[in-house]
Structure prediction request, 211 residues.
Amino acid sequence: MDDYTNKIDKNLFNLIQKIENPIILELGVQGGLSTKKFIETCNKNNGFLYSVDIDDCSNVSSDKKWSFIQSRDDNFEFIKSKIPKKIDILYIDSLHEAKHVSKIIYGYYDLLNVGGIIFIDDISHLPYVKNGIRNNFYCEINNQETFDMLLEIYFSNYDRIDLNFSFESSGLAIIKKKTDKFLDQKIKIKSRKFSIKNQIRKFIQIFRKRI
Prediction:
């Protein structure tokens, strides 16, 4: 079992297999691995999967529990006209850039049932840092920015969502909807890392080590 399969089995499918009659919206089909596993879950739990991709991926399956929509995932009006008014699972695995992921979360959040879950793939930059096991500038920066953006959403919505992370492989974020309230817009987290107070703290620590 590869890292990706292990990640989604443990942190995604282990959760959704407990949901009866799940309505799932998958954004990003790619090779179809997650799509096929979602379909398998839908057949077991009497659910239905809607998958969206800008490329034609309609040949991934002919299963009756699956409907493919060829479109950009931010074509909200069009996609919402093709799916039910409420969903239980949103899986985001399309364009892995923070601004786009944020747009997608806010664009579909109103569809999510209370107790529903959003999964966001590729939120860990650690494998991609310089001299890391995958060493990739684009993935490092985008995953780090996506991770920080998710913290900002959580920071302004403590009472509305739960947020957890898995750092296996390229990482996975798990957002659970707690109430019917709409999400507030994310708030920039003001760090005191570079404050004068923190510089004084560091100076004192160095001074003490030298005594």
The chain has one domain: 3-210. Helices lie at 3-16, 33-45, 76-80, 98-108, 137-155, 196-210. Residues 115 and 152 are 21 Å apart (CA to CA). Residues 3-210 form a domain with the Rossmann fold fold (CATH 3.40.50.150).
